[in-house]
Design goal:
Blueprint lengths: L10 H8 L1 E2 L2 E2 L1 E2 L1 E7 L12 E6 L11 E5 L8 E6 L10 H14 L4 E6 L8 E5 L8 E2 L5 E4 L34 H15 L11 H26 L8 H10 L11 E8 L9 E2 L14 E4 L6 E3 L3 H9 L4 E4 L3 E2 L7 E2 L9 E2 L5 E5 L17 E6 L16 E14 L10 E8 L9 E2 L2 E3 L5 E3 L1 E4 L2 E6 L1 E7 L20 E2 L38 E2 L1 E4 L5 E4 L12 E6 L5 E5 L13 E6 L12 E5 L5 E5 L13 H7 L13 H8 L5 E10 L4 E9 L12 H13 L6 E6 L2 E13 L5 H11 L24 E2 H8 L5 E5 L9 E4 L7 H4 L1 E2 L5 E4 L11 E8 L2
Parallel strand pairs: 3-10, 15-37, 33-34, 40-41, 42-47, 42-48
Antiparallel strand pairs: 1-2, 4-5, 5-8, 6-9, 7-8, 9-11, 12-28, 12-38, 13-17, 14-16, 14-37, 16-28, 18-27, 19-24, 20-23, 21-22, 21-27, 22-23, 25-26, 29-36, 30-31, 32-33, 32-36, 34-35, 39-40, 42-44, 42-45, 43-46
Helix pairs in contact: 3-4
């Protein structure tokens, strides 16, 4: 095997050519090789003829001693023949090639030339021609020079030099051993000192005052910060690893999951004013009609060591009270105060032991209140009253009252009238006020209205109504806080000085659309909606209670994000971290305008469940009108919600996209309709209506039936469902809300009454069991509307089982063989074998109905033929 060297000077070739012994060469070898290409007129033979030049004359060589190695795509390349140039026969090569060989032979001697013909031309890779050495050769072939590397494509156009470059590259050092786990100052310092000890072994200084050590420590300090930055960036880049609340919020937003930062609490506050005082007839202000002014609502304070009512406090005293644990609430709207509304009494029309039943939506009040008479206009629709039990109905003692029997209602109707029967003065009609409120504010409990004798034997009411009610929410207003000016080098992220930033819910109307205030911004409260809605909102509608003013007087308003903000929108995003500090993020001139500086912030602080104070917690109106003698919240504050935790977001955000927010198929429309709180079931049917498709959605409303007296608002309800489905509707499809098809039933059963039971009592019990209303014990009657829905059959076995639960029932006979009058069928339809089948089937849009109303037998009836008993 020949030793492989790469040398800058090929001295061996000169030795092989020039070394002679007794005038004869010692060794022979290959001096050069030429591939004939352009010289060959026959295209098929081009690059297949090789001319090999030796240092000295060569013996007779044949194809067996010539071998061609190498090649990539074309291999092997075989030798057809190999002949010394002076032994070529006529016709073995073409004349131009023969002429070229003759000319070359004349210059160097034909005895030194070997002509080789291959079977194919090679590819562009390197090949090697090898001469097989034999001991009989004279002179012998040199072991190193008996082979030569060449290329068949040497004459192909190329911009590179064909001469191989033999270089001896310098010695390179191996890669240094580096501890890639070094991530802090100490480990980086140690790493660099260890490396310098290898590369600069003569430098042994480790004194901190040394310049080299100082440079190392400076670099370690910078590397420590860079490492922290890299770790932080890598950590915050993924939802599962992010630690900063802002990062988690942005990741969740990309998944269409709005992470919320909590919401503040709200409370209904009942005020009392002294008759004839400045507060009587005065207005307790809410926030300024133009929120940009920064004027907050009236300040309310939880109990501190001071009398209830209006309280004069300086800013320092208020700060001290807050530092001691008092919570601040502020009114959300104006309220006109009247002494006549301090405490109002119910009118029972001369009846005794009356009760305002559960789900009531109307009542009557005496016009004469505790402190004054209610004048015209002092009680009107839109005002809020709080019904309150002030004494135990059994004992008459205030200590025995039920604190849960308090309820706020917003009046929808107020009618001033008289009761001609006045037991105190028959000659003078009794002035009364008839009031009504929305079904959404229906009384959630029965309220006793009778009077009891107090310690002085005077008759005092068990329950009263409180006027002068205002809605207040948790949070204290901070105004006039200048923000740091922006710098061109860094993104503008000013921080608010105080926290936590208040987040307020926004109001929606009955159709589910956001209400707008006078400035076109989402309204905080719906002053025309039910009182129950004042403490309910969707967390996706919550926005920070903050705004900014620039030097031009233009207001900057908060948004959940800047994705929908154009380059002119003066919007910002308030991003709160877990420590309660809030940074403001502005636009970049594309998504949201870029601020120029000079911004002044007005915002509120106070948020979360800390504001869910109990009843009777609020006690003071700070710097309110003189004459306010009392302030209290009869009901606990509600709605306060803490910021959503990072763990909860990591759990829910990846699944948010699975929540379907569009309706395409019939099943989609039915599912979307069932999201409405008042819809029990829904069914949808797509029909071609001549020019386009119309989706007919049929809904089964909870609790009542279309066409019944309780469903006088059926048209409004269907319009509400239509508006509710608009956000999910597929473009190009019309939408119609249809009524269900109610199937009235006609049932007659023979009942055997057990001995000792009165048939009338048993019949009454059966009528109660098979009623369509809620029973006194809280259960539903068998044919209550919520017990049946679309396509649900009515099984005879269930009816028999329910009837057997009635006291005094021995057995039930359902045989309809003549002359027995038993029936089990649809109303007004002949029997279709339902009794034999054991059930009455329903179509997919049909709902069974049986009201058992003698005035409307067409709505279904059930008859009991009583036998036996008394």
């Amino acid at each position: 095997m020949a030793t492989q060297y790469r040398c800058l000077d090929n001295g061996r070739r000169a030795l092989a050519r020039d070394t002679l012994v007794d005038g004869k060469p010692v060794v022979n070898g290959i001096d050069a090789l030429e591939v004939l290409d352009q010289e060959e007129p026959d295209l098929a033979l081009r690059q297949r003829t090789l001319v090999v030049l030796f240092f000295h004359a060569i013996p007779e060589l044949d194809r067996g001693r010539v071998r061609i190695e190498g090649g990539v795509r074309i291999a092997p390349v075989n030798v057809d023949w190999a002949v010394r140039a002076d032994r070529l026969t006529a016709g073995q090569v073409n004349p131009p090639v023969q002429a070229y060989i003759d000319a070359l032979g004349a210059a160097v001697g034909k005895e030194r030339l070997l002509v080789v013909r291959t079977d194919v031309r090679g590819d562009f890779s390197a090949y090697r021609l090898v001469i097989e050495r034999r001991t009989t050769d004279e002179p012998a072939f040199d072991p190193l020079l008996s082979a030569i590397d060449f290329s068949f494509k040497v004459e192909c156009p190329s911009e590179f030099d064909c001469r191989p470059i033999n270089e001896c590259p310098p010695t390179t050092r191996g890669a240094p051993t580096i501890d890639y786990l070094a991530r802090d100052y100490a480990s980086f310092r140690r790493l660099m000192l260890d490396r310098l000890a290898v590369t600069m072994p003569g430098w042994q200084e480790r004194n901190p005052a040394d310049v080299g050590v100082a440079i190392v420590e400076t670099l370690a300090y910078a590397a420590d910060h860079l490492s922290y930055y890299q770790d932080a960036a890598a950590t915050e880049a993924y939802l599962g690893a992010a630690r900063r609340r802002t990062s988690i919020r942005r990741h969740a937003r990309l998944l269409d999951y709005p992470m919320h930062d909590g919401a503040n609490a709200r409370a209904w506050v009942a005020l009392e004013v002294a008759a004839g005082s400045d507060a009587d007839g005065g207005v307790l202000p809410g926030p300024d009609a133009a929120p940009d002014s920064g004027h907050p609502g009236a300040t309310l304070l939880t109990q501190i060591p001071a009398p209830r009512g209006s309280l004069a406090l300086t800013d320092q005293e208020l700060n001290r009270a807050v530092a001691d644990g008092a919570l601040v609430f502020e009114t959300l709207h104006d309220v006109t105060l009247h002494a006549s509304r301090n405490e109002l009494y119910f009118h029972t029309w001369g009846d005794e032991r009356c009760c305002l039943p559960k789900a009531a939506t109307s009542a009557a009040l005496l016009r004469q209140g505790r402190d004054a008479r209610v004048a015209d206009g002092e009680l009107k629709p839109g005002d809020v009253l709080i019904f309150e039990e002030v004494r135990g109905p059994d004992t008459g003692q205030a200590a025995d009252l039920d604190p849960t029997h308090r309820h706020a209602v917003r009046l929808t109707e107020v009618t001033f009238g008289v009761d001609p029967l006045n037991p105190a003065d028959p000659t003078t009609p009794l002035e009364i006020i008839e009031i009504a409120w929305d079904a959404a504010d229906a009384l959630p409990f029965p309220l006793c209205l009778w009077t009891v004798a107090d310690a002085g034997a005077a008759q005092v009411p068990v329950a009263v109504a409180r006027g002068n009610v205002v809605l207040a929410d948790h949070g204290r207003t901070i105004v006039g806080e200048p923000l740091v000016p922006p710098t061109p080098e860094r993104p503008y992220r000013p921080r608010l000085a105080f926290g936590p930033l208040t987040r307020q819910g926004r109001a929606r109307d009955a159709a589910g659309s956001l209400l707008l205030d006078a400035q076109g911004e989402p309204a905080v409260v719906n002053l025309a909606g039910p009182a129950a809605d004042a403490t309910r909102w969707e967390m996706r509608d919550v926005l920070p209670a903050a705004f900014l003013l620039d030097p031009n007087g233009d207001a900057w308003r908060p948004q959940p994000d800047l994705l929908a903000s154009d380059r002119f929108a003066r919007d910002f995003v308030a991003e709160t971290e877990d420590d309660g500090r809030t940074a403001l993020r502005f636009g970049d001139g594309v998504s949201g305008a870029r601020p120029i500086g000079g911004l002044v912030a007005a915002y509120r602080i106070g948020n979360g469940r800390a504001g869910n104070i109990g009843a009777e917690s609020l006690a003071h109106v700070v710097n309110g009108p003189a004459g306010i003698t009392g302030a209290r919240n009869p009901l606990p504050a509600a709605g306060g919600e803490d910021p959503e935790s990072a763990d909860q977001v990591r759990l829910y955000a990846p699944q948010a996209f699975r929540t379907q927010e569009r309706a395409v198929t019939e099943a989609d429309y039915a599912a979307m309709a069932e999201r409405h709180a008042e819809v029990q079931r829904a069914a949808a049917d797509r029909r071609w209506t001549g020019s386009w498709y119309t989706m007919f959605v049929t809904v089964d409303r909870r609790g009542t039936r279309a066409g019944s007296p309780a469903r006088s608002s059926d048209r409004a309800f269907r319009a509400e469902i239509g508006n509710f489905l608009q956000r999910y509707r597929l473009a190009g499809h019309d939408l119609e809300i249809a009524r269900p098809i109610y199937v009235s039933l006609d049932i007659a059963l023979t009942v055997c009454v057990a001995p000792g039971y009165v048939r009338a009592n048993v019949r009454q019990a059966l009528n109660r069991i098979f009623s369509s209303t809620n029973l006194p014990d809280g259960t539903r009657g068998f044919f209550h509307p919520d017990n049946f829905t679309f396509g649900q059959p009515v099984y005879l076995s269930q009816i028999i089982a329910a009837a057997m639960q009635a006291p005094g029932v021995s057995w039930i006979d359902v045989d309809d063989a003549p002359p027995k009058p038993n029936r089990f069928r649809r109303w007004g339809k002949p029997s279709q074998g339902e009794l034999a089948a054991g059930y009455i089937p329903m179509g997919w849009l049909e709902i069974a109905r049986l009201d058992n109303d003698p005035n409307r037998p067409e709505n279904g009836k059930i008859e009991f033929i009583m036998q036996g008993g008394l």
